[in-house]
Amino acid sequence: MPETPAPLVEAGELLIDRRRRIDRPLAERLVALADDHLPELLGLAHRVRLAWMGPAVEVESIISAKTGGCPEDCTFCSQSARYTTGVARRPMLPTAALVDLARRTRALGGTEFCIVVAVRGPDERMMREVCAAASAIHAEVEIEVAASLGLLRDGQAEMLAAAGIHRYNHNLEAGPRFFPRICSTHSFDDRVDTCRKVIAAGMELCSGGIFGMGETWDDRLDLAFTLAGLGAREIPCNFLDPRPGTPLGTVPLLAPLDALRCVAVLRCVVPDAVLRYAGGRELVLRDLQAYGMLAGANGLIVGNYLTTLGRSAERDLAMLADLGMPVAERPLTGTAGLRPV
Ligand code: SF4
């Protein structure tokens, strides 16, 4: 029987036996494992997830409450007003529509409903509308409300927290060295600053990235270790779906095995966060989607993404049932600083 490579043994001892984190050099050795050893890496990541987070999967939905027309120039984004992408601009959805969508999410077993708007950051009117929607949803639906409204100014995170928004999404999207290649209208540090405001206001930070934009493995590890350092409680793991009309519209798709390695390495670097298997998985992983759930992911967006269609929620829930993975009855909480389960 072939020997298990040393990096897998060392990572297993640290993460599972000693409940410690791995450092950057060990993560680099995991990244460098040959494809022959990928099944063992996925298996390690799955055991790490079970040890730190348990078997349940958090099911969520995101709703694009205001679509298109964003002034920023993120090169992957079909909602930027700078590119001709065919995404129709749509103003803010009314509160009643958001309550109805939250109710439908709950009926599917979802425990979190995330209100997403395409803006650089919220103005006062949008803050009022989102806070009112969060209150209305809380009054009528048993579900946690999250929000993703872009860059926050001083005081805004506190207002959202006071409105009962428990988690705020603000993706870093890429590591600090690669970020200037995908956005020039705001900086990586601007994004980190908002992430810090979220945590300081007492909300959980949801922050992740997109893989397959042309970044290197060093860039991916930069992102993973930055997220670990920030204390992200949820990490969306997106794969680039090259949208026609955007500057990244012709970038080749990430190879499925690389995508699975991204999930597994991210889980090993951040053992104590919800790792949300998010946009692009249908396109990039195709028949291998279920493997991502066996590679350390423990969160799932069901239904559609912001501007692209996902497969049906029923198919995703059937996948979880086939995998023997229970749907979490409430949002999962990472175990940062606590003893893993
Ligand atoms: S700030 Fe957000 S919505 Fe605007 S272009 Fe960038 S990713 Fe798209």
Give the SSE map:
Elements: H1 6-17, H2 24-31, H3 38-53, E1 58-66, H4 95-107, E2 112-117, H5 124-140, E3 144-148, H6 156-162, E4 167-169, H7 188-200, E5 204-206, E6 209-211, H8 217-230, E7 234-239, H9 256-269, E8 274-277, H10 281-285, H11 289-293, E9 299-301, H12 313-323
Helix pairs in contact: 1-2, 1-3, 2-8, 2-9, 3-9, 4-5
The chain binds iron/sulfur cluster (SF4).
CATH superfamily: Aldolase class I
In what order do the strands lie side by side in the largest sheet? 5-4-3-2-1-9-8-7-6
Mean pLDDT: 91
Which ranges are low-confidence, i.e. pLDDT below 50, for 5 or more consecutive residues? Answer: 335-341
CATH C-level: Alpha Beta
The ligands bound in this entry are: iron/sulfur cluster
What is the CATH architecture descriptor? Alpha-Beta Barrel
Count of individual beta strands: 9
Number of helices: 12
Q: What oligomeric state do the depicted chains represent?
A: single chain
| Helix-residue proportion | 25-40%
Distance between the termini: 32 Å
Quote the CATH topology: TIM Barrel
Biggest β-sheet description: 9 strands, parallel
Please, how many domains? 1
Overall SS class: alpha/beta
The dominant shape is globular
What is the gyration radius calculated from CA atoms? 19 Å
Question: How much of the polypeptide forms β-strand, as a percent range?
Answer: 5-15%
Summarize the helix and strand pattern as letters.
HHHEHEHEHEHEEHEHEHHEH
